[in-house]
Automatic annotation (TrEMBL):
Cited InterPro entries: Heme_biosyn_assoc_TPR_pro, HemY_N, TPR-like_helical_dom_sf
GO CC term, one of those recorded: plasma membrane
Protein name according to UniProt: HemY protein
Organism: Paralcaligenes ureilyticus
Gene3D superfamilies the UniProt entry points to: Tetratricopeptide repeat domain
Amino acid sequence: MRTWFWSVVFLALAVGLALVLREHGGNVLIVAQPWRIELSITFAVLLLLAVFFLLYVVIRLLAWLTSSPERFRLWRGVRAQKRDHDWLETGWVNLLEGRYTQAERDFSKVLTQSRSPNRKVLAALAAARASHRLGEFVRRDDALQIARENAGSEPRLKEAAATVAAEMYLDQNRPNEALRLLQPLQDASSRYFHATRLLLRAHQQLHNHDRVYDLTRLLLRRGVIDKAEALSYLETAVAARLHKGGLAGFKTIWGDLKSDERVLPEIALAGAAIQESAGNIDEASKILEAAINVKFEPRLLSAYSQCPPEQVARRLSKAEVWLKSKPDDSALLAMLGNLCLTGQLWGQGERYLLRSMKIRSDVRIHALLGNLYDRLGRRADAMKHWRLASGVAGVLPVLAANRALPAADTRGDPTLIAFANMPETDLAGEGQEVIPQAASAADYVVEHEGKPAAEVLAPVSGGFGSKSAEPDFDEYFDSAPIPGVDLSQTSDRPSDRSKNR
């Protein structure tokens, strides 16, 4: 539009100038001794315009020639900037796609060839992140050092370098170093929410539960943290604070909590444990009941089933109401069975536990059934469920009742005396017991009334020639067959040729 406007203006000026010059037929006289130049006014005007245009072109050409070095530097700078941007763009795409090796290579090109400190800081931080993902922590620390050096005194670049380094230190479970970098940022501006979230992670790893509680509250008030995530932080922190504060600090800590926070499992368990330790069983029951009404957590149900006998009736009536809404909840049925055992309601407890076992085979249910049958005198059933409990727990294998280890093969025992091949007179006298002589019975002593031990421990001869009756334990070995091994193929088992001898 502007081009058309100026074209019309110049055309109008040209037409106007032509009309003016046509009506004036005068001459222009130029006297320059010894010359005398006479021109028509039209030609003089056109000549003047031509000279002006020529001078304008010449001056612009001289200006272009004199500014060539600066323009060349600007051109090179623009080209380098475009090249750096291309490398940064390609590197970030590779980093986001998980091609960390290629991304690190692209960012290294920027670090080695770029002349811009800002772009070097960005490339170094991105390269550090790629090296961190690859587990190359030495290269990562080198890249972070380059970023700090190029950041200089620029506050935003320094904050960026500190934040990236702290986040990677937290991934490595190095909260002390992250805390040292993040604390100045959070002190400088409490609205720096990303640094505050990282501080929350650092204090959680350091188990500073008071700081975790305060920072979570701050982020919740500002609305920069998800409610579910905040509740998970609060659950751990508040439970630890309750255990640490005990009964003395219970009122203060519990009073700061909202209703939806008091029913979190860890908090409810901690609060109920404190009240129960203080003897406030009814208050502990109310805390657990409020939490169970929100969520049937097995830990809450297990804690609710642990109560003195005088509380059994009240808790059974409450649990039976829950059972109407959750008739197939295995943990709830197990809780009812445990309460019945505490109240010595054996038949009802057995029914609840068997119903729970049909839904889910659990080590605790088998253990409770074993205890129940043990109290009822049903030893076989008790042993069966105790074995099943150990099998479910994965501690011991459950062996079949009709299986037994095979008897040891003692034919190859070098310390065994072959009594069958000895005369009867050598075996024992009349009215005397036969004393077995083998490695497993080397210390066997027969009790004789009225005889001192020294007389009983008389040396026995025979079977060893001139050797003592005490066996050499270094030569003893267990000759029991190994399950699953064919001993006929080994040299330890007597061969048929030796039997024929």
